[in-house]
Amino acid sequence: MNTIENIYKLFLQCQGKVSTDTRKITHHSLFFALKGENFNGNLFASMALEMGAKYAIVDEKIYENEQLILVDNVLETLQKLSTYHRKKCKAIIIGIGGSNGKTTTKELISAVLQTEKNIHFTPGNLNNHIGVPLTLLQLKPEHEIAIIELGANHIGDIAELCTIAQPDIGLITNIGKEHLEGFGSIEGVAKAESELFDYLLKNNGVAFVNNDDIWLANMAKRLKNKIPYSINAINLDTIIKHIQIVPTIIFETQNTTFQSPLMGTHNLQNIAATIAVAQYFNVSILNTQKAIGLYAPTNNRSQIIKTEKGNTILLDAYNANPSSVQEALNTFNLMPQNPKYVILGDMFELGSYAQQEHQLIFEQCQKSESIYQCILVGDEFSLCDSNSTNIFQFKNKIDAMEYIKNAEIENSAILIKGSRGMKMEDFKALL
Description:
6-stranded parallel sheet, 15 helices, 35% helix
């Protein structure tokens, strides 16, 4: 019988090396033959062994081979194995959820904590039912703290991830209009994200609470072990003052001036959360200050890019939902550079709310006195009612790119944002 205890022994034989993709097989790794809508990893198990995997976990009997380990369900085995390994490790687990800013907050906290602690954290945004187990399986005995990002598309997702990761500490960045197609409403979003607080309450965990978010402040009232923070005061003793949010973030707290290349109120909240966590783990204020100052976002998240044409691009094109687009526009309006151009792509996974939410963003652009020109791209934005002379709508991305290419935009500020599927970063090369 292939129990989790037996499979864990195989995992240790493989020195903790795990693979799920035959294109990325490492020598003597443990291959998990995962299934999806368009693939069946069982069909590649033999190939994985030929390419150097020591064992392959499968849930379809292919042929008799002592290197093929048959289980009832490969995904469930991966998840249970990661929880088993998590229990074997001494690391304190910090779970980070929220509608927006999860990855930035995870990276900020990781940058600060690693100045004094041996830490592990979610690579990229591997924050789902597969990514979280894979992240946990990378834990080493020497790790003191692990920062695990928890993503969700439906109610119940966070609860499932908490069962797998079993966080000791939790932080929800904010509640916003994310994945409305799956959650049904912002109330559904709040219910889903609150599953992290539910887990902490039941398991005597510690919750960091963003008191600037009314949803979170109300949700946290029932919590026993909570540490509130805000952009005004990390706690009663550490007031934040002299705040600047554009073109970079600058503020003072504990007689120390913080500077960050990030901008905007939303990123100030991410930094406030980071300082609160740093204080909890007794990281010095100077190490906290230095790490926050050195953190530079990557991967199309809140990146400031200067181009040869004299343009300043705020590239925030990794993903988008109505809340994050609204916040990005508010921040962009405060940037000192002029003229200002906005290039927005459709927001996905909004279900029946799609047209309503795109129209609201359209109207926000329309009312902005600081935007010189707004280019909207995609099926939903092309349907918005328009009577503005400075808003241009394109159903087709290629047509929008041709327009921008011919516009010869120079010495301007440009915001680029849209859902991942729109790949709005493609516009960067034209500017």
